[in-house]
Amino acid sequence: MSNEGVDNGKRRFLTLATTAVGAVGAGFIAVPFLGSWKPSAKAQAAGAPVEVPLNKLAEGQMVKVEWRGKPVFVVKRSSAVIDSLKNTAQQLKDPQSENAEQQPEYVDTVIRSIRPDVLVLVGICTHLGCVPQHKKETEVEWGGGFFCPCHGSRFDLAGRVFSGVPASKNLEVPPYSYINDDNILIGVDEGAA
Question: Quick one: which of 70, 43, 76, 54 has its CA closest to 187?
């Protein structure tokens, strides 16, 4: 076979052009495919730690944030509330928070927090999963805390369940840590931040 009349320059150009178009096409296919391996922004946000600023939180005030699809309560407690927590043991089902699954090991089991003035709880009633309401100590005769409107369970301002109510366990304390004095990070264990 003879190569007479064949334009080698044109052949090289067509070969290179076809290769380039093929590479671009492969890139258009590969980028979305590889991107599908990465979790969606919604999935990343669902498990991502949540930073909560404390410097604008006044005594007695509560803020609610969402972490992993659950409401999390952050409450600023007064020294009077903290002192009262030590005097309510006879009214509670689990005053010493003996169920280790309900709080990380680095929180105090009576005040159920790292720092006495800041309480962090998962806001889901341990009876049937309703969201309790925050009741300030001045609003109710039982000293304040959390009241579940679904079936009447009550929890003190440490999230410990009162005796004689449907809920059987204290409210859960999620893993959290202090970034600094004015910010906490919910979802990251103390010492791991």
Answer: 70
134 is annotated as an active-site residue: no
Which of 11, 64, 86, 151 is catalytic? The answer is 151
46-72: pLDDT as tens digits: 667 889 999 989 888 999 999 888 999
What are the pLDDT digits (tens) for 156-188? Answer: 999 999 999 998 899 999 999 999 989 999 988
Measured distance CA(123)–CA(70) in Å, rounded = 7
123: its two tokens? 């806001």
Tokens 């803020």 correspond to 63
Classify residue 143 by its DSSP letter. -
Euclidean distance between CA atoms 188 and 120, whole angstroms = 13
Q: Would you say 104 and 63 are in contact if contact means Cβ atoms under 8 Å apart? A: no
CATH of domain 44-186: 2.102.10.10
Cα separation of 140 and 158, whole Å? 16
pTM of model > 0.85: no
